[in-house]
Write a structure and sequence with these properties.
It is a single chain. By secondary structure, this protein is an alpha+beta fold. It has a domain of 26 residues. 40% of the residues lie in helices and 17% in strands. It has a two-stranded antiparallel sheet with strand order 1-2. The chain is elongated and about 30 Å long. The mean pLDDT is 93.
Amino acid sequence: MRDITKDRKYLDELVALGHSATPVTLIDDEPVVGFDVSRLEALLADSE
């Protein structure tokens, strides 16, 4: 887990990916913005 409030480089990474909202979860380099349970489950199932 990366906490953008504790380390500025994590915020810079988020902005470099084109996102300005949190949470952003990366699964196999695929970003999921927000808490989208169905999308997270689908990506996790595909990554196994």
